[in-house]
Amino acid sequence: MQTTHSITKLFVLAMLCLVSFHLNAEPATEKIGEVVFTRGAVSAKSISGEIRVLGKKAPIHQGDVITSGPKSFAVLSMIDGSRFSIRPDSVFSFENYSLKENEESAVMRLFKGGLRAVSGLISKRNPDAFKLNTTVATIGIRGTDFDARLCETDCAIDQKKYKEKRQTLADDAIAKIAFMKGDVYTLYTGGAKIKLEPGSALFEGDTVETAEGSFAVIVFKDEGRVTLKENSQFKIEELNYSPDKPEENSAVLRLIKGGMRALTGFIGKKNKDAYKVKTPTATIGIRGTGYDLLWSGPCSAGAQVCGLSGSVWQGSIFAKNDAGEFDLLENQAFQIRFIDEPASIIDVPPVLDIPRPDEVDINFEDLFAEEEDDDVPSGLYVNTREGKVYIERDGEFIEMVPGEGGFVSTDGTLFVKLERPKAFQENDPYLQTINEEFETLFELLDETVIEQNEFECIVQ
Prior knowledge:
By secondary structure, this protein is mainly beta. The chain has a 17-stranded mixed sheet that branches. It has a 17-stranded mixed sheet that branches. The longest helix has 24 residues, at 2-25. The model is unreliable at 1-28 and 437-460 (pLDDT under 50).
């Protein structure tokens, strides 16, 4: 009986696939975008009432209502370069979308579910033209990247799931971003980057990169701290910390490029030999607590500003390379140009225009505290990823910057800014698909995939 039922479902879906090719081949006017990727059952209903099953490269037209089924999602690319990632069980429409000069408009409506939007040329020409209407409020943008979700009981279920996952990750974290300015990333093999934010967890093996005009303060579980200057790369090669077993603690860090200001924590205080910072021309050990390092690049091709330089502002450190081991005392500055060259004392310390990590006000207990349970009432949740986003209801506005969220209850009685998005917003894998290589995302659905030319069906 089960086999017959499965064959029947397979036949119906196969027919839908064939019908979709026929419908997609029919000419249509006012094309405003196309499908980049779909997985599962995703359809579009036109103004005339025609329903099309959407596959790759299927056109999106003015007035289309997009519907995604359970465990189904889609990514759309619009004529102005905007992108939309539509999550499962969502209904979303394009009410008015125009790139015509002086008539720019991107007005959408979310009836159900959720989406993520990265805006394009329309919002750059006229930020007031980009709006997402919902049953409880209107969302506008002054930037480029946000997501929104209309929640019933589904978000509370996701909140519990993602919160447990996030807490597990937090328990495994060896450091966190305590404070930052600008753009800060974690680098992965192959060049992939994940953008970080205040509170982001870091793990053994992570490489942190700061962009132009940016800096970050990293706090480790042993209460050590590092401030990274702009255009820097810093790797946490090893960090083991157990308060009850100081003899087993260790910290091996690497300054790949740029500069850092460091304040050692309990690892360095309890077992100084277990703390090391590797650089291209020397390995730095400690006899004290506070120091600066700046790597200016290799001394080749007649470079004058090059090599490793640094200074000690608290305690003492030592530098070790092929030329030997050199003690560097408090208030001393030094330079090491080559790996086989001894450290030389210099008069002027390197300039690192970033705060000393001990001068940044950080509540360590709050940073590493276990998250408390919180409710997820029904309503509209918005998460700002880049730029500025506002929510408007009955003439009232809430403006949000990156890292902030907003909430409007279904009945409109609660209209508040969230200092941090909910776990279900931050960890939603369907919304991460917006900038991914989509052919690698089969793991989002634990189903059998049938590929037919450029259309893909899911057999459930």
